[in-house]
């Protein structure tokens, strides 16, 4: 049992009960299993679009009974005997990707492909962070002690959306100074791509989305041109690029139509960086694309960029709290899910749930 002041043996958590079914309910506290584990009290967590994909049944590896969530900032409550870099009482970021630190992939910074029991496991193959407490395997290499002056809300955005957009979108897409970058999908991941693409001073950033509220957010966060419902993305990009097409197209939705749109917006010799989580097959029209010298990349975030992004936040170079639109207490998990699920109506980008927001 987690060492807690109230000595309870049960906690509350958001539990998946199969497609379309979830519940915020009591479940046993997590326990240390391996000497490399830490138990973290969840002080702040959030909901990801991937959680919605799980609830739709798009991720069959997630079994009923699983606690969802893979993003958190919290306080270390207990550690296994082998943990050396964090200790009880430390405030830490819990990464969405767990790393054993020893396997071939971890040794080359590809933590998302960890062969030693890590990768994306929280809220996927083991219980996750949408709970009062969470067990974090490989705590030395899967948590980050937070410096003074970095708020929990700012750090929380480094658990997933910022490194995902930066690594899988901007870096895989090879954004360079002077490029025209199109981001298809202005949800949290797309907005984070818009934010981090600016680190490379592209000449234009174009945001494509159907929701007016998200396009407003895109403009606020740095998009130069926004393309909404009823507009022609290809015409907008052609006008900016003298008919050449975008240098980089970042797919941040995860449906066949948006991937296909990216293939039509990018110029010959350009890059398509797929970030969206796809739950349905996508047709790759090689009969048209083979001749265009395109580079298409996919990827699960590795989080190798987290320390650098954390330094940028600490230095005031990045302020990811601008993605947050709604705040809830941890016990308001169901209301937070409803708000996030109805983003077209609520305008939700990132919802944050905090322990200290409870009454």
UniProtKB/TrEMBL annotation:
Q: Which InterPro entries match?
A: ADH-like_C, ADH-like_N, ADH_Zn_CS, ER, GroES-like_sf, NAD(P)-bd_dom_sf
Write down the superkingdom of origin: Bacteria
Provide the alphabetized UniProt keywords: Metal-binding, Oxidoreductase, Zinc
Report the EC number(s), separated by commas if there are several. Answer: 1.-.-.-
Single annotated GO MF: oxidoreductase activity
Against Gene3D superfamilies, the record matches this protein to: Medium-chain alcohol dehydrogenases, catalytic domain, NAD(P)-binding Rossmann-like Domain
List residues of the Enoyl reductase (ER) domain: 20-353
**Pfam families attached to this UniProt entry:** ADH_N (PF08240), ADH_zinc_N (PF00107)
| Cofactor(s) needed | Zn(2+)
Identify the enzyme class. Answer: oxidoreductase
Q: SUPFAM superfamilies from the xrefs?
A: GroES-like, NAD(P)-binding Rossmann-fold domains
Family of the protein in this entry? Belongs to the zinc-containing alcohol dehydrogenase family.
Q: Please report the name of this protein according to its UniProt entry.
A: Zinc-type alcohol dehydrogenase-like protein YjmD
């Amino acid at each position: 049992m987690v060492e807690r002041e109230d000595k309870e043996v049960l906690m509350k958590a958001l539990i998946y009960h199969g497609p379309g079914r979830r519940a915020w309910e009591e479940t046993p506290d997590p326990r240390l299993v391996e000497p490399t584990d830490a138990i973290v009290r969840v002080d702040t967590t959030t909901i990801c679009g991937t959680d919605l994909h799980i609830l739709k049944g798009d991720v069959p590896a997630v079994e009923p009974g699983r606690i969802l969530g893979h993003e958190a900032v919290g306080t270390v409550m207990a550690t296994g005997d082998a943990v050396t870099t964090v200790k009880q009482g430390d405030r830490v970021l819990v990464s969405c990707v767990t790393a054993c630190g020893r396997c071939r992939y971890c040794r080359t910074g590809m933590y998302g492909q960890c062969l030693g029991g890590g990768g994306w496991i929280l809220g996927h193959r083991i219980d996750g962070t949408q709970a009062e407490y969470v067990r974090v395997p490989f705590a030395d290499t899967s948590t980050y002690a937070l410096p003074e002056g970095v708020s929990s809300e700012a750090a929380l955005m480094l658990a997933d959306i910022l490194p995902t957009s930066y690594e899988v979108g901007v870096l895989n897409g090879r954004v360079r100074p002077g490029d025209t970058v199109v981001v298809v999908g202005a949800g949290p991941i797309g907005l984070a791509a818009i934010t981090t693409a600016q680190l490379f001073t592209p000449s234009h950033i174009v945001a494509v989305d159907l929701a007016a509220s998200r396009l407003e957010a895109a403009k606020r966060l740095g998009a130069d041109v926004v393309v909404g419902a009823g507009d022609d993305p290809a015409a907008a990009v052609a006008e900016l690029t003298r008919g050449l097409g975008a240098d980089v197209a970042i797919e941040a939705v995860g449906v066949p139509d948006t991937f296909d749109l990216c293939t039509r917006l990018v110029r010959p010799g350009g890059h398509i960086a797929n970030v969206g989580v796809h739950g349905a097959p996508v047709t790759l029209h090689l009969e048209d694309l083979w001749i265009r010298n395109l580079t298409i990349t996919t990827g699960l975030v590795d989080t190798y960029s987290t320390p650098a992004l954390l330094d940028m936040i600490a230095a005031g170079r990045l302020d990811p709290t601008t993605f947050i639109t709604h705040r809830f207490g941890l016990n308001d998990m169901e209301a937070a899910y409803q708000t996030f699920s109805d983003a077209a109506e609520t305008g939700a980008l990132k919802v944050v749930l905090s322990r200290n927001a409870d009454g």
